[in-house]
Recover the amino acids of this structure.
C-alpha cells in the first residue's frame, strides 16, 4: 500500500552508498524511520533538520523499515535556511524531538504542533533568541506533561525548590498557548500578528514590561534567577516570552535544565549534543 504523506525530518542515517534512513515525524505514522534512495547528484539540502517534505510511503508487511519515494519540499523555509541562528535552533529542536520520541510512538496532534512551530520560527524576523526555551516548554505540554513551576523547579540549578517556591506565590501552572491550545493551536498560524513579534505593536507589552528576572537582587543565586525566569515564561504569552531579557549564559543554562526535565518525564537519556552548538552561538 502506498500513500502520500507529509513528513518532518528529525535526523538521517546513511544506510548504503545510495540509501538513507530518514528519521521522521508524520501525522499518521508518528515517529517513524523510512528508507529512501538517493542518487549521486541528489541534493542533501532536502534532508536538513526540520524540513517539511511530502512523499509516497510504501508499507512493507515483512519489514518495519518502510520506503518513501518522490520526496519534495512543502515549504522552502527561507527564513530559517538564510539565518545562522535559526539554523542552529533547528539542529537543537530536531535532536530533542529525535531523542525524546520513541520509534513508533504516535502522539495525537504532535505533528501539527511541530509543523506550526517550524513555520512560526521561519516567519519571525526578530526577537527569537528565546525560541528554544519556549519550544521545550511547549513540547512538554504537547507530550502531556503540562509543565508547572512545581514540576520544573527540581531540575533547576541546585534545586533550592522549597525556599524559592515559598517566595514565588501565584505562579502560573501552565504555559499559555500550550496546554489549552497545543496541539493544533489556531493562535500559532504563521503570519498572524498575534505571534510574529516584528515590532512592539505586535506584542502585548514591551521588553521593559515583559515579565522577567529584572529586579532580582544582584547577589541572588543563579538557580533563583533561573526559577524567576521560568516563572516569567510560564506566565507569559508567546510574544511576551520572546522579549524576556536573558544573557546567553542564562539562556543556555535554562535550556539544559529543561532538557533534564524532559529526560525525567520521557524516561530516556536524551544526551543532546547540539546544546554545545547553542552554547557557542549564545556564549557560555
Amino acid at each position: 500500500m502506498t500513500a502520500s504523506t507529509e513528513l518532518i525530518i528529525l535526523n538521517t542515517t546513511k544506510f548504503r552508498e545510495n540509501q538513507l534512513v530518514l528519521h521522521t515525524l508524520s501525522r499518521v505514522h508518528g515517529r517513524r524511520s523510512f528508507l529512501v534512495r538517493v542518487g549521486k547528484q541528489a541534493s542533501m539540502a532536502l534532508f536538513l533538520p526540520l524540513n517539511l517534505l511530502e512523499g509516497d510511503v510504501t508499507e512493507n508487511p515483512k519489514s518495519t523499515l518502510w520506503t518513501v519515494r518522490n520526496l519534495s519540499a512543502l515549504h522552502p523555509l527561507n527564513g530559517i535556511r538564510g539565518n545562522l541562528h535559526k539554523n542552529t535552533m533547528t539542529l537543537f529542536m530536531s535532536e530533542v524531538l529525535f531523542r525524546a520520541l520513541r520509534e513508533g510512538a504516535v502522539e495525537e496532534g504532535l505533528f501539527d504542533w511541530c509543523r506550526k512551530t517550524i513555520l512560526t520560527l521561519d516567519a519571525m524576523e526578530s526577537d527569537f533568541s528565546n525560541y528554544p526555551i519556549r519550544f521545550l516548554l511547549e513540547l512538554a505540554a504537547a507530550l502531556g506533561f503540562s509543565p508547572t513551576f512545581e514540576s520544573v523547579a527540581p531540575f533547576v540549578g541546585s534545586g533550592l525548590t522549597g525556599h524559592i517556591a515559598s517566595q514565588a506565590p501565584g505562579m502560573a501552572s501552565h504555559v499559555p498557548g500550550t496546554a489549552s491550545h497545543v496541539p493544533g493551536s489556531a493562535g500559532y498560524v504563521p503570519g498572524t500578528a498575534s505571534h510574529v513579534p516584528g515590532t512592539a505593536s505586535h506584542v502585548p507589552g514591551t521588553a521593559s514590561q515583559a515579565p522577567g528576572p529584572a529586579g532580582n537582587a544582584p547577589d541572588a543565586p543563579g538557580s533563583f534567577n533561573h526559577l524567576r525566569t521560568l516563572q516569567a515564561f510560564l506566565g507569559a504569552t508567546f510574544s511576551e516570552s520572546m522579549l524576556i531579557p536573558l544573557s546567553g549564559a542564562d539562556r543556555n543554562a535554562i535550556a539544559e535544565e529543561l532538557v533534564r526535565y524532559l529526560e525525567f518525564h520521557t524516561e530516556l537519556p536524551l544526551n543532546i549534543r547540539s546544546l554545545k552548538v547553542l552554547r557557542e552561538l549564545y556564549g557560555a
About this structure: The chain has ten helices and five strands. Strands lie at 2-16, 19-26, 30-37, 52-58, 66-73. The chain has two domains: 2-73, 78-282. The two ends are 50 Å apart (CA to CA).
